[in-house]
């Protein structure tokens, strides 16, 4: 046991106002980074969106990088949760279709987070490369092996497992990352295009993956 005198001091608990201000900053930053990317976002813009002064913002976060890092922390875990949920003991086509539809739903309800992640990748993943080369790669390898095993058993039509996963990312996150283009082309009422997309993707993957 450590001597009490050598123990690290506990950080003081944040007050309700401090928690509220921190959350307001993160919400404002998520909007700003999703709209303008990391380079196009300033602390002044984040503070304005949060309804705080810049000095007040700097009380909570020392820099734009600190705000950006706080948003990215935990995002990968959230983003990969549906892939982790793919069950090796489940019915293969159902598991993959369910994964694709969950990813599409995330694009609908979390478009800002999707664009934040996309922006990080487009700029070379300077903040997230260790997570991408570590936990993400390990998870993709694990699930690709599950898919390959299903194919070897004849339970899925043969294809490249990793590119199958990439295709699901592309066909679902597109609706968040290119939302302006999608809406301009379809002019949907509310989010009806997500219902249409779900029907299309379910048909696409069922037909592509069901063994002949």
Q: How many whole angstroms does the radius of gyration measure?
A: 21 Å
What ranges have pLDDT less than 50 throughout 5 or more consecutive residues?
1-9
CATH superfamily of the largest domain: Tetracycline Repressor, domain 2
Distance between the amino and carboxyl termini: 63 Å
Described by strand count, sense and barrel closure, the largest sheet is: none
Helix tally equals 11
Can I get a quick summary?
By secondary structure, this protein is mainly alpha-helical.
Layout of helices and strands, plus pairs?
Elements: H1 16-36, H2 43-50, H3 54-60, H4 64-72, H5 75-84, H6 92-109, H7 111-122, H8 129-152, H9 161-177, H10 179-186, H11 192-209
Helix pairs in contact: 1-2, 1-4, 1-7, 5-8, 6-9, 6-11, 7-9
Can you offer a commentary on this structure?
It is a single chain. The chain is an all-alpha fold and 212 residues long. The protein has 2 domains: 4-71, Arc Repressor Mutant, subunit A (Orthogonal Bundle); 75-209, Tetracycline Repressor, domain 2, CATH 1.10.357. The chain is built from 11 helices and no strands. It has helices spanning 16-36, 43-50, 54-60, 64-72, 75-84, 92-109, 111-122, 129-152, 161-177, 179-186, 192-209. Residues 1-9 have low confidence and may be disordered.
Main features:
single chain, 212 residues, mainly alpha, Arc Repressor Mutant, subunit A, Tetracycline Repressor, domain 2, 0% strand, elongated
């Amino acid at each position: 046991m450590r001597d009490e005198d050598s123990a690290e001091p506990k950080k003081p608990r944040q007050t309700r106002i401090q928690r509220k201000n921190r959350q307001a900053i993160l919400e404002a930053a998520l909007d700003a980074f999703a709209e303008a990317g990391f380079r196009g976002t300033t602390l002044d813009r984040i503070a304005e969106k949060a309804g705080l002064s810049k000095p007040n913002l700097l009380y909570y976060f020392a820099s734009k990088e600190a705000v950006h890092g706080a948003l990215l922390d935990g995002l990968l875990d959230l983003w990969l949760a549906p892939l982790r949920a793919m069950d090796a003991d489940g019915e293969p086509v159902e598991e993959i279709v369910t994964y694709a539809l969950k990813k599409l739903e995330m694009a609908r309800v979390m478009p800002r987070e999707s664009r934040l992640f996309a922006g990080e990748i487009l700029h070379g993943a300077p903040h997230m490369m260790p997570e991408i080369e570590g936990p993400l790669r390990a998870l993709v390898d694990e699930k690709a092996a599950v898919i390959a095993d299903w194919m070897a058993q004849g339970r899925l039509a043969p294809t490249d497992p990793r590119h199958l996963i990439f295709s699901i990312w592309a066909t679902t996150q597109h609706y968040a990352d290119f939302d302006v283009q999608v809406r301009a082309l379809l002019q949907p009422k509310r989010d009806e295009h997500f219902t249409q997309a779900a029907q299309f993707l379910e048909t696409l993957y069922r037909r592509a993956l069901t063994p002949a």
